[in-house]
Design a protein that fits this description.
This protein is of the alpha/beta class. It folds into two domains: about 270 residues, Glycoside hydrolase/deacetylase (TIM Barrel); about 160 residues, no CATH class. The protein is about 40% helix and about 15% strand. Strands 1, 2, 3, 4, 5, 6, 7, 8, 9 and 17 form a ten-stranded mixed beta sheet that branches. The protein has a three-stranded mixed beta sheet with strand order 14-15-16. The protein has a two-stranded antiparallel sheet with strand order 10-13. A hairpin with a 2-residue loop joins strand 11 and strand 12. Helix 1 packs parallel to helix 9 and helix 2 runs parallel beside helix 5. The radius of gyration is 23 Å and the shape is globular. It starts with a strand and ends in a 5-residue tail after the last helix.
Length: about 450
Amino acid sequence: MGQVIVRLDVEDWLTPAADWALEAIVGLLETYGIRANTAVVGRRAASLVGRGRGDLLRRLAARGTVGYHSFSHSEHPTLAEDLERFGPDEAVARFVARERPGLDILRRAGLEPRFFTQPGGNWVPEAAVAGPALGLAAYFSEAWNAYLVPAREPLWLGSVLHLAPPVDMPKGFLFGLPEGVEPALEAVWAAWRRGTWAVLVTHPTELVTTRFWDADNFGGGRTAYPRVPAPTRPAAAWEQARAGLERYLAALTHAGAEWVTVADLLEAAAPPAPTWVDRATLAESLGRHGFGPMRVPGGSLSAAEAVWALAAWAEGGRDPLAVPAVGPPDPRRNEPGDLARGILRSVADGGTLPGRVGGLGLAEAAGVLARRMGLGSVPVTCTAWVRRPAALHWDWPIFPPGFAAWRLWTEARRLSWTLKPVVWRRPLWVAAEQQGGAEP
């Protein structure tokens, strides 16, 4: 017996046969009592409602947690293409303006999205910043597309619960059904043997199509006219594919799978709160983790919070300290003068660290402050949680040739200063609980 997290990306708003696939999967979820996470594209919800199939959305919502998968998925300009050209504040406002209409569609259809999932390689840090105000308390990425290093453990990214786990379902598994069921099951058993939950990510439309619906319509940075449905298998093969998926899900159910949803994670996770820490404990944690996400007795700290604590002690603060939530470095804030005072002033004024303080960039300033406090050389490790550009999915075939979202990558590194492990209010498996800390 083990835990399974299922995410279904409901996105194909151009292929009529995708309705059959969606209904088939909803039926399997209901038959086997499976709880899933469903990431719905705004245009897909509109197409279902327009064809009188809003019942499918409501049935999905009854089977677990609903998420939001962007307004139009691959339509140009995609999220990454659009937001790459803006500064941080403008990009957040642009994200909200683009995505609120899609969220409104889902809510009018009777759904209440709890998480955001980016389409393809469109990882945009603005979704983590704007998410809570839009009702999106979690960001569910995964190893195939994530900017953050894949990790089984959820982390707080600011005030958003961020998941970027490895996936234990072969890429394109549904395209190949009914073949490949046994190797796909073995991947789940292997995850359980490791003591981890298995993560399954797929798209209902794959049951009936031979390639992704957006490849012919938005590939290579261009929008095709007229837009066309995805090519489908012969109708006689649809039921065979559905039967293969049923065999797979039935085997997981009979093996005692415990289905975990994003709502379960949000309910089990203690919201980020001030954490009490003493100097000896922080010194030991910094020695093991550097300025990065760290677990301490009774809570957890981000790199930004650790910097604030050192600054507070340098200015005569009590030991232990109640460390508040601290925002990421603001590149527009340049605090002159003493390092510790500048850091404390920036947090007191705006809730964030300064981009520069005492004539130094924040990473260098943090190292200098650690040495002044007698901790020796402490590296900045939080930015290592953002994957190197060569590992990112900038080769998503929807993007224009040669596209690279450098500003978004830089912004992700800035936000990484707020990453911190989750503290659980009730027992729930996470890797860091077993290992005693968080590592990229």
